[in-house]
Specification:
The structure is a single chain. The chain is an alpha+beta fold and 408 residues long. The N and C termini lie far apart (66 Å). The protein is globular and about 75 Å long. Strands 8-9-10-11-12-13 form a 6-stranded mixed sheet, with helices on one face. It contains 16 helices and 13 strands. Helix 9 packs across helix 12, helix 9 crosses helix 16 and helix 13 packs across helix 16. A hairpin with a 2-residue loop joins strand 10 and strand 11.
Amino acid sequence: MADVNAMEKKLAEYKCDTNDAICLKLVRFAEDVDDEGTTFHPEYSHQLYGDDEVAFGYKGLQIQLYYSAGNLNTLFKVKYSSKVTEKFDCVEPDDVEGKIREIIPQGFCCNTDDFISLLEKEGNFKPFGSLIHTYSIHNEDAGEDITYQIHKADLSCPGFQEYHERLQTFLMWFIETASYIDVDDDRWDFFLVFEKYNKDGETLYATVGYMTVYNYYVYPDKTRPRVSQMLVLPPFQGEGHGAQLLETVHRFYCNSPKVQDITAEDPPENYVKLRDFVLVKLCQELPPFATDKLSSGFSEDMAREAQEKLKINKKHARRVYEILRLRATDMSDEEKARAFRLEVKKRLFGPYKKNQREMAKMRKCLRPEELLSQVNQLDTQLQHEELERSYQEVLAEYRRTIERLARL
């Protein structure tokens, strides 16, 4: 028994957290390759290495995935100090290298010198597609304004499909339920963010992030662009690029009379927060959303104007209205605060009203014991508590958006 425990303890030493083991870089200069300060790590690796995000069989495991900053040429190497099969019989290590090879396209480098030689060709890389927006952000470390560009591309751009195959590998590490898209479908639009930077007096471009949008058909002659994926790469997060990208995409589609509205596919919480900020910023200039009209409640004029001018659907326009109304409301005034609270709760109560209608139907067709079970699930007190909890969560979200708007 002691021998078994000793063996288990020894084997445990060969388990590695794959989020720590995977080392990612965006390389601009040859010295970046050995600079640990430029390394970042995944948020997720479960899609390759299981829910526990652990690789077995190695000590000191390091999975290097380095990309040239612009064209995303890739260096892939696996390093470790020892391997389980070197000391133990009948125990197989995980195929960590094979898992990575499943998601990265062919043509990557396995040799650092070969990778560095590709860096010298980065000057030949130019952003794909057409330039649709340029903006600047002040960089405190550099002590200067950095220029960024947003381009719209599609699969007809020479070399873009190969570039996109490399770019989308980042999704696996930073979007929990990520999957690759079918790029053979010509309804996809791609929006890419690049940073302009100088290297030895030459202007080069670094990949910052991107968004994919699928154009669904809406009868009889409209389309509904739906945001599918959006990612700002970790070295650039927290700088405002997501807001610039989403606002640019909205403005791009607003110019098309064929667009019905713009939506998103299963948006995560962070995306919803970003969308709140962008849509409020866009809508606050529309006449129906003027401060003096907010206290009268959400109106059809608001819904219509948001849809026609900005391609924002009614559900999102209502949320924008509530944020703007909160900003314009003196919440220390009990009467005004109560009016706002009732306005929001009236919307939030919608699902509960639906439950009540369902209960009325159940009374006609369920046996008493079945009805009692359903009544317990829909207890009125619990509904009120849940409604209040939902209201407080919404209030906190809205206040964060208002605080961000105040920093503009």
